[in-house]
Amino acid sequence: MIHNDDLEKLIEKLPFFLCSNLSTHKYKHQLIEIVLDLGRRPEARFITGPEYLSQKLISWQDLDYVTKRVSKFSNENRAGIERTLHRISCIRNRQFLINGLTCRIGRAVVGTASVVRDLLESEQSILILGRPGVGKTTIIREIARVLADEMEKRVIIIDTSNEIAGDSDVPHSGIGRARRMQVAKTELQHQIMIEAVENHMPQVIIIDEIGTELEVLAARTIAEKGVQLVGTTHGNCLENLIKNPSLTDLIGGIQYVTLSDDEAKRRKTQKSVLERKASPAFEIIIEINEQNFWTIHENVKNSIDLFLRGNFRIGQVRKLYLNEKIKIKCQKFQIDSNLSINRGSRLTNSKNSSQLNWYLRNQSEDEKFFKLQKKKLIIYPYSLSNNVLKEVLLKMRFQFVITNEIKKANIIIGLKKHLKQNFKLKNLARQKKIPIYTINQVSIYQITKLLRSITF
Fold first, then answer.
1. pLDDT per position as a tens digit, 240-268
2. Same fold, 109-331 and 371-453
3. CATH topology for the 109-331 domain
4. Strands 254-258, 228-234: parallel, antiparallel or unpaired by DSSP?
């Protein structure tokens, strides 16, 4: 990963006795924020933990020195530094005088979006969940750059607090070719979201910190117009989102439904149950558990329905290691607190028989996929990049061989528009009984989706 933090531009705004200490600090590139509170020692918070920077106590003059060298504080008590991603937030006393500053380090980190590159190619709307300070804004900034520069999409960022593209009329280079719309007042964010769609024809809208019912309504409106959304909101997991009344409409909303006697008996539940009201505005949800440890819900509808039934938990865990390798694995499925489903295990619990049948019907595709993983695929690629195909197969942990001889293959994968014209290849495949699978375009998402659908 490549880091760009413009740290020196922030350090030079601090009092001299702090500049000299921070400039030579061995962990300065692991700095998260600097805290300056009146009458207290200045504190730096690193990834490894907090540390005092000086024995000297912060005075009114020190706070005044810093505030005069940054931009003007907004109504949200936030300021920035020109052409950087740093954010300075202030604490005021009862007379509205500034008696504390939090200087948060902003970084553009190239490579953070590699964990979910395939999800971005799917063109589905993505919501990122995480607690404050876990790195949601850094991730969404890199997603904007990838979508705009590498996927050549028309991307517009709704930058309410100037955290994504910096405190300047000229956006920071960390967002690439993406465009940025600033918001004069936080309460107007939902209006700017709609304005972006109506006036600037974006393919992707990026929103940081969706928090009010009006913003949720605007997000649903944009989703209905066919624009891809990428947004963030506070919360540790999907359960927090479901239980948050102002945000629950992002995932379709929750309502009480009264079942008939027969249906309640069939489900073995009470007559009044919770169910999802509508389709979610975001089809994919990413939970940022740690900076390099993410939980993915690729089918939000299914995840919410399972959660509301109170019996299952399904998740995909992705981890990015220091050597930039990505590992993907599925969590165990669980039914109630005393019954767990391991692939291949026998399920015996008469009380949950109806739920098990429902589970097995919905998980049949997964079972086929895991059976396929155990087979050795001998693939003849047609009009496909071998490197892209190998990358997907390795990530999905397939046993495979890529061959140039059709007779040796047990599967053919190729571009639909090219295979359509090759009658000779199709006839030979029919004679040898080799199945042909096609994709519309060469992308990691399309190949992954195809491999999950293959059966023998």
1. 888 888 899 998 888 888 888 887 777 77
2. yes
3. Rossmann fold (3.40.50)
4. unpaired
